[in-house]
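[User]
Protein folding is very new to me. Any chance you could explain this protein sequence and its structure tokens? I have pasted everything here:
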Amino acid sequence: MIAFAMGLLVAGLSTAQGAPMRYAEDRAPAIVNPLFATTMSEARIDELVFDGLFSDDQELRSVPRLVQSFELAADQQSMTLRLRQDIAWHDGQPFDSGDVVFSINAYRDKGTASSEAGRVAWIAKAEAMSPHVVRLQFVKPEYAPQDKLHFKILPEHKFSSTTVKRSDPFRARPVGTGPFKVESFNDDNSVSMSRHMQRWDPAGIEEMVMREVSDKNYQAKLLVYESLEALIRVLPRDLATLQNDRKIELHPYQTNSWWYFGLNERRAPFGDVRVRQAIALMMDVDKLLKPIGTGDRVSGPFVTSSPFYNHDVPLLPHDPNKAATLLKSAGFKFDGENWKQPNGKPLTIKLVTLSNLEAAQDVVINVQSQLQNQGVKVEPEFLGMAEYRARIWGNQDFDMLLSQWSFDRSEDIFEQFHSRGSRNFTGFSDATTDKLLEQARGTTDPQRKKALMRQAHRQISAGQPMVFLWTLDSYAAMSTRVKSVTIHPFYFFTWASDWKLTR
């Protein structure tokens, strides 16, 4: 220990004993339970508190996390996992195979109704062979099952059954095996976490604090005045200011997320593909993007760097004349000011989005102006998280919504676009797409999967369940006191245990 401290002094650094690393979220997580994570703030804190069986290394290759070693059967129908024996939960209880079996069954339990259930749908059975050996049987042969075993593991001893409710006390008293354990949820909506020492690789930072700061402009000021050590994403207008601050370092990273307008096909007249296409053609997407930053436009449900992205599918053009032709073919009439539906009512769109979605207000105001200038009335609503979940996920009560999807390395879009998908709230239903997604899930050949997903990209783009917008360029900002920083492109904090905080 003395030699370690002397080494830091020789290097010109000293550890920040007792000093927390503080990072800002626009809104505090509503729940800390990976069964129910639906926002990126929840996914990020899950990375700090929980572990998966496998995780990404810095080359984005799957490497064991809670697993010591594994063996895939010759027929690729099953896998044996030997678990680490040097792991304890945050409450001191030992980690074992029962936790793995419990977690898989909890994800799949219909009574749990987890939004993450698709992550385990490919596992037919999980069986504890001994306290530290688990055998997984698959629905179909799996080429690289470790790539799908990144979902978070929960402690069996904290639950009475695999039917877990969102309201379970665990949501506010989570217990994981991750690098940080939750100490308290504070009155100011911050969350205090401390380093988990009963771990094979204790984190280099003693304490982490998530602060809720809803004003993005204020976040940047807090970083400048050293009341924060990290910003998750810097607004484009703040980049120059932060870049010129000697005490701040910018860290570019590429997210696996894309923005979209989703159209509710269950509600007339949006069930008509001609109407959806017309609305899309009325939008000038480049002008929508310009005020909020830089990024790559997308023509379908993947980022442009994805192996599944079909570069032969053209970007959506801005073509009001073609939009008018499509609406007329669908029975609409233009009275000189407004488009009228076949029933004589004006074409009006109720557009909803989350009130805390970064830059959403700028996009909504601009698209409202664009569409209204072309005879389509837009009525925007900005919803809090509880109402958003009830309106969108529960009742599908919307015409169009603005949001973004964030994916992990598997980029599994089955739940979003399959007709029976648990996240298919737009009501998109296409037999060809269903078949392609089913085949992609079932194949063990990575090249065949790539070809199938590119076909799905084309098919989904043609069906226009969404107006596919862009993936934004992202920069995190850190105090220069935070060292050894590497940011995971999907979940941000995956490698946070390697970070250091100096004085």
Q: What stands out?
A: The chain has a mean pLDDT of 92.
